[in-house]
Amino acid sequence: xxxxxxxxxxxxxxxxxxxxxxxxxxxxxxxxxxxxxxxxxxxxxxxxxxxxxxxxxxxxxxxxxxxxxxxxxxxxxxxxxxxxxxxxxxxxxxxxxxxxxxxxxxxxxxxxxxxxxxxxxxxxxxxxxxxxxxxxxxxxxxxxxxxxxxxxxxxxxxxxxxxxxxxxxxxxxxxxxxxxxxxxxxxxxxxxxxxxxxxxxxxxxxxxxxxxxxxxxxxxxxxxxxxxxxxxxxxxxxxxxxxxxxxxxxxxxxxxxxxxxxxxxxxxxxxxxxxxxxxxxxxxxxxxxxxxxxxxxxxxxxxxxxxxxxxxxxxxxxxxxxxxxxxxxxxxxxxxxxxxxxxxxxxxxxxxxxxxxxxxxxxxxxxxxxxxxxxxxxxxxxxxxxxxxxxxxxxxxxxxxxxxxxx
Length: 407
What we know:
It comes from Malassezia equina. The chain is of the alpha+beta class.
């Protein structure tokens, strides 16, 4: 592996290619970067394996480069995703992608234990800032989150160029169809499998039979009309432009409204399937979101409301505490429909709401595990001290991390 090359070659989104094509020249890549690798400093020695008294973690083959020492210094070797780095694109990305194929297969076949194992392994590998190509199965198992079975699958990937099972899954048309179904809003693996067994082969079949959450709420006819728009991914530029327009309406109700775009957008994804918008302001009230949705409907900016509800703070002594959430279909540019989740949070819970809607799934699970260990309950509704049910003020993410001593 040439680490110097990885550090100097920019990783950009496909929007850069579109810009080059439109201008018929190689444009500056700065605005299109999706990940920046840090320049690492050389450590004096390798970190010790967790539970080992004297043996540092090392490569199995001779000829390991000195650069590997530099890379290992930046590696946070932890069981929990909340305590380690998680880049959008990692050095072992091809390996992570194949592990995710196995994870999704286990999800479709309702093997929750195995699904969790592959999910944790993929997350752990994303945090490793160097190639695992030369690591044998025994060394791979020293990484927290990788067991014997996954270690053997990783060795197969590096020795044969791919995992045989992952290739078989990708070639299985039935599994790929069900996987496509799960990309639709509100479709889980069980519903996808039932729909396939009932004869559904396309997203249109699924929607026509009223199997999707949208079709159950809005009816098959309306859902089919919306399907082409809602299937289309949005670029980061489009997401930001949509939010700018939407916030103009929000500030007509909440003058000092502050917002952050969460979800895959905040995690750095170049394309997004929907928009998760977290909003707060001093004039927040329990009725504010309902009034906002009514105004957006009246202005023909929202065509459909899928749901409007309060998400409570788990474990809080007062059941009324939490955040308000509206799942809507937003009319963008007067003609295009996009799915938007509007989350209106009190100022002192904005940070917790932002964390909860940012993801990823593994990160959120581990954040909840860490919170429980520290005596708290973390949920979309806020951070609650379990001893007395007190909702802890969390106006920023930093407040959440400091409260739970996450460094």
